[in-house]
Design goal:
By secondary structure, the chain is an alpha/beta fold. 37% of the residues lie in helices and 17% in strands.
Length: 115
């Protein structure tokens, strides 16, 4: 079955996220390779930390995840932070029809969930 987002681990993750620069470091490391990119697809976005970091750098970002609780939280964060360049969708990667329309695709911490 794999990982399941619950209210308890959502709360834990959001608290832990405030104490790390992990996602900021990832984005900083890959930015030199993304000079001509404008759009990012974040597969398995979870609660959206990577998508939010990319949006903060000026990218148009789509985050997808199969977890409704996670996507609901991303949407809430998007509203709270007024991030107009991020959208979140509750959809599986294999259902995406416009995957080749993104300049960059990020897949972090997802492969461990593939059966």
């Amino acid at each position: 079955m794999g990982f399941v987002w619950t209210q308890r681990n959502i709360k834990w993750f959001l608290t832990a996220e405030k104490t790390t620069y992990f996602y900021k470091k990832i984005v900083t490391k890959v930015l030199p390779y993304m000079r001509e990119a404008k759009t990012v697809l974040d597969v398995g976005c979870g609660l959206g930390p990577l998508a939010i970091e990319f949006a903060g750098k000026g990218f148009d970002v789509t985050g997808i995840d199969t977890s409704e609780p996670a996507i609901s939280m991303v949407k809430e964060r998007i509203r709270e932070e007024r991030l107009y360049s991020v959208r979140a969708e509750n959809i599986a990667f294999e259902k995406i029809t416009d995957v080749f329309e993104f300049d960059v695709t990020c897949i972090c911490y997802v492969m461990s969930l593939v059966e």
